[in-house]
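Cont'd.
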Amino acid sequence: MLAKLLVRRLLLGALTLLAISLVVFLTAEVLPGDIAARVLGRESTEQARQAFRERLNLDRPVQERYWLWIQGVVRGDFGQALTNDREVADIIAPRLRNTLVIGGVAFALYIPVTIVLASVAAIYRDRAPDALISVLTLIGLSVPEFVSGTVLLIVFAVIFPVFPVMSLLDQAETPLEALRTLALPAITLTTIMAVYAIRMLRDNLIEVLDSEYVRMATLKGLPRIRVILRHALPNAVVPALNVTALNLAYLIGGVVLVERVFSYPGLGSLLVDSILLRDVPVIEAVALLVSAIYVFANLFADAMAIVLNPRLRTR
Amino acid sequence: MTDPVTGRSESKPEPAVGLLTWLGRLRRLPPGALIGGCILLVYLFVALTGRFWAPYSPTKTGTGPPFAPPSREHLLGTDQLGRDVFSRVVHGTDEVLLLSLTSTLIAMLAGGLLGLLSGFLGGWFDELLMRLFDVMISIPLLVLALLVIAAAGPELSGNYFLLIGVIALVYTPRIARMVRAVAMDLVTREFVTAARTRGESAWSIAVRELLPNATGVLLVEFGVRAGYAPILIGSLGFLGFGARPPTPEWGLMISENRVAIVTAPVTVLAPAAALALLVIGLNSFTDGIARLLGRSAQRSP
Amino acid sequence: MAPAEGPGTPSALIEVDGLSVDYWTQDRWVNVVDSVTFSIAPGEAFGLVGESGCGKTTTAYGMLAYRRANSRIRQGQVRFGGKDLLKLADKDLQGIRGRQISIVPQNPTTALSPGIRVGSQVVETLRAHRWGAGPHERRQRALDLFRRVSLPAPDQIFEKYPHQLSGGQQQRVVIALALACDPQLVLLDEPTTGLDVTTQAQILNLLSVLRVEYNLAMLYVTHNLGVVAQICDRIGVMYAGRLVEVAPKRELFYRPRHAYTQGLIASVPRISTPSRRQALLLLGLLRRSELPAGCAFSPRCEFVEPACRVEKQHLEPVGAGHTVACRRWREVPAFAERLASHRQSLGAESEAGPVVASAPLLTVRDLQAAYTSQRTGLARSRKPNAVVAGLSFEIRASETYALVGESGSGKTTVARAISGLLPYVSGLLELEGGHDLLSPIAGRSQELLRSLQFVFQNPDASLNPRQRVTRIVGRPLEVFFRASGKELHRQVEQLLEDVQLDTGFGRRFPDELSGGERQRVALARALAASPSLLLCDEILSALDVSVQANILRLLVDLQSRRRIAYLFISHDLATVRSLAHHVGVLYAGTLCEKGTVDEVFSPPFHPYTDLLLSSVPEADPDQVMPALRSDVGLSAESRQSACPFAARCPWSLGEVCRRDDPPWRPVTETHAVHCHLPLDQLNNLHAVSRTTTPDPSS
């Protein structure tokens, strides 16, 4: 039963990814029309363009190109970058690693921050702590990440030079230095995700705390701790998981901006650069990769929800 | 909702509010909504009238020494080309507001219509549309926007129609999904069944019975999306995919003046504050309205 | 011996003294429970009755010192074991809750934690109160408890999650939970609401047995007077947060002294003493915004004096163990007197009977209806998953035909099939004049649509919350008669008057109306089309008893004045007895018995009818409820066997009943029973007779 559900989710995820690849491909290669002219510029000669087209198989029909690309992707071969002929996979790898690192750090910070603040807001609902958290999160989600990142940069890297101005992770020598370069962008990213999640988790927690079964557990004479840990929290975790998975979308979007603000060498800045340079294979690869991360994160959250919720598991 | 006295809390639908009761409640608006509303009014005023009383033209260079600090002639100083920052911020207002509201409105119309049809008709239309939208939603917002802009090519860069189109495009599937959920929920209510047994047409039911009950949700959704739109616009501008220089677009201004952030912080902080304050106003107003209507303004990506 | 009320009663197990609770709504404190004082002796069953919003549930939870979010206990004491529970620290309260006083809440599904197996939920209570020496002992105890509450296969149930159990089973688990640590007092909050009548009877039975066995004291909170008449020793009646009368059971039912109690008891329809024109002693509504400083009931009281509105009433002794909160109790006539004078004023029971026309208004033959279908093997055709099959009956003009059944019997399906809302309908379904009702709505003529109108169960959901009453009621007039403007308004006003709503109601929105008022609007809307047949699907179930009585009277009036026929769908046998002319008893999609209402409610019975009738607790303290065989509920197997009731039938003939379709055994021209058993056996099925019980006025 459980396995069947999970397998079905997995297949759905794979199918979604396939569809996404189609969208990415169409948007990146088909929509723009004549890529050759686009990349080489208006002044380029027809000859140069023709050579370019042949190099990239642009004269083949769309389906074939898509098929070739997909085959490559499955094998890990994303083609060659237009700007410097390197394997796209080689360009992406270190960037991916960097982005995962900063994403991971931000995520590690996000979990305790969200749980603590949402719990405080839920337990003291409608009173001062809750109102304060509400105002703070409102401001937090209203200030765009490139603004908050920039402000943090000014304050903590320029005025009080605690952290480096440019977060060049690759140049960090020791783990401590690495942490220093990561600190500001990670904090900015954490804030982006947390502000949405705190609001949602607070609402979920309140719903659970108000539920009849929590009331019943209290009236059975169970100690408060047990009521919260055994009856309340497990039921709030599942929606929290889903919230988190959804919030990854904000994280990914935020990554693009934050990497720019802090000059962090990750996937986000790679995407922006490759768009500016019109490096189509790189654009496709990054867009697909980023979406894949999102899709599978949501899949994981779904799977966890099924595992943790007996109602979905049994009949 | 739970009746506080009887404690009954089952499937009682949220009671809608008659107009007089509504107006009466305005007095008891949450403070956030009032503050937000005031902020928005100020921005609206600036957007509509700014061009008449801004001291300088936003694109005129050399009105003062570059990176001049704030003074009587230049309330917020000047940027690296000697342009008056205050005028630029003021002029940027109407663009942001126009772009945000227009794109969100278009998305609401398109998403609303598609969502309503989808939820009501069901069948293969619904399946197909929702699959397509699911895929679009699975690509993170900003990434999708960037992709489309990249596809549009460099000639169209900064084109307002493109920006409006992109934002409307990324919003439509999300709005459609929400409207569809609302439609599907409403359709199960018995007053809709009653209308069906009277032999009323699908169109009549959709307009007479469903729509008035969806306005609250739609209003809140509009507020939430419109509140995020300036951030999206600013982000695109910051990255260089929005308006072209010398347009006084706030995101662009922040990006342009970042280099001089130490020597002339106002050139960055002014547009940043303008953007942040606008969004705070929009969000707090939406939250307040949501609270009034008895809903929560959940923001899912 | 019933102890007197009041503080310091020596023999009381628990004393509630002046309990007052407020709720915070939007911007101010609203009083929900006001100075409630009563006590319960050890082993005594105390019933707390009242209609919705009277504060009985809040009182019950208050006794466990439970404070809901946004509520406060303004004052009062709850004395138990020498301590005031309201002043106890949390730690001490924990020791009492679940151990000495436990609670059985209203909805067992939401009371059990969804993610924890039910066995563990019982064991954790035991562990929290340090019951038992170890896990093994506790598990044994849990299994024991499950056995004691008649759960089948306790060791299997132990491992299950709540959602895998039926409603009845969940409630038994909750009862087992309540009994886990041998409490002295059990608080029960409407524990059988939401359960089928037959399941309810089993649970009530169980509770009676357990009470005696464990010498439990009980506080039984309910709106159902029939239940308290069966189970309780003493009863307290609450109105708008105050206790208005407390008395031993028989005293209360035969000699109630408070005007509200009298009205309430008169509102309850009886199976045994049916009347199409019940005495309506209780009129009007409780309006919280208009509560006077004095007696809360004064706006509705026949015997009110100016002083009543100003002075708060307190419980005064009236007789042995009988107290009343009314300063004029001596002037209020005895219950029997009021009933008698009311009947006199009504005059003869003149109402137009059903028109004995030659052709029936609605003809149903072999109706089969389904929501979904599935492929049959390789065939391209689909076989509908019939919810209802082989149904045949007729309704005549101006007559009320009742379809009675429990949940899952298919009664709503029948109504939907007739309205054309179901995709798969077959058989003969015809409205007089040859109108074929097998076609869905799209294929029906305006005339047909107009003559058949639907009224729904849930008054909250059946009116568009964004439309004013005038618009709601006027819509059918627009659609069917193209009425508009002044004419439309006039007709709407007339309709509102017909359903006894003041014309001022036209401008209101549904959220400004009470449940009963909304249902009247729904009726007005249906009547606007001038239908010949009204489909009423459980339209009274969501309403308070007194409101039900009023709407019932309205239905009877409307029928005689407008000559409308009703298809009245309900699970409430007593109401059906009062309203219907003909009855069909439905079980698992087939009719078991049909006939006139007098015929069906007296022997010979179909075994299911017998079970149903035996399960209904009458609001009559002298009625003895028969011991029922504890058994399973409606299950999937019932649809496989030819007679769906065979699995539950105590008189089943075994293989015959499962294999062969039972025949229809005619008793009279109108009465027939669908059973393999011969008529003489069906005649003697049950000891309980439903003939008239001693008239309280004698």
